[in-house]
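[Meeting: bench + compute handoff]

Bench side (C.D.) handed over the final construct sequence. Compute side (W.E.) agreed to return the predicted structure before the next meeting so the bench team could plan truncations. Sequence as handed over:
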Amino acid sequence: MLYNIKQPGIVILAAGQSKRLGKPKQLLPFNGVNLIEAAVKTATAAAAAPVVIVLGAYSELIQPHLSSYKKLQVVINEDWPTGMASSIQKGIAALQQHNNAVDGVLLMVCDQPFLHPAIINDLINLQQQTQLPAAACRYQQKTGTPALLHQSLFAELLQLKGDTGARKILEALDTKVALLNFEKGNIDVDTEADYQQLIKPSSESK
């Protein structure tokens, strides 16, 4: 069976509490912009629409930074303490409500600072070339975000519980996932040490 995604939408998952960091990672500055705005700029510049961002913890602090992005739909997940699954579900619901022609969802997070629109476009093109039910990035021997999933997988995404993300579904698909190498995809920000490593001058060279 071939899986043709003609109208992918993007869901940016940004509802987390950043518990290990102790402050909202979404607002950490890097290369002249905070991480949440960098993610939004990347998503809105890519060849996918609509773009939904799911906020939760710190939403009242973060939302004012997003007011100028007219192509962005902001969703507040009041259930964010239950884990990532609830944010994925609210994001998909918002995509479908915004545009019922959406037949795929590209999930991304806000703390992959080296993600840029070309990677998202390459991921979309890879799925369209392979016609597999999913395409995802590969780094450090792991499969992860950003990841593009066909609408036939929406039911499984909507059944996820707790802090389980799309990786569980991608692992179950095994060889039915097209893989795109994203060398710096493993660089994210979970702790203060991660952030300090990121902002070292040597980390800023791309």
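W.E. noted at the follow-up: The longest helix spans residues 84-98. C.D. will use this when planning the next construct.
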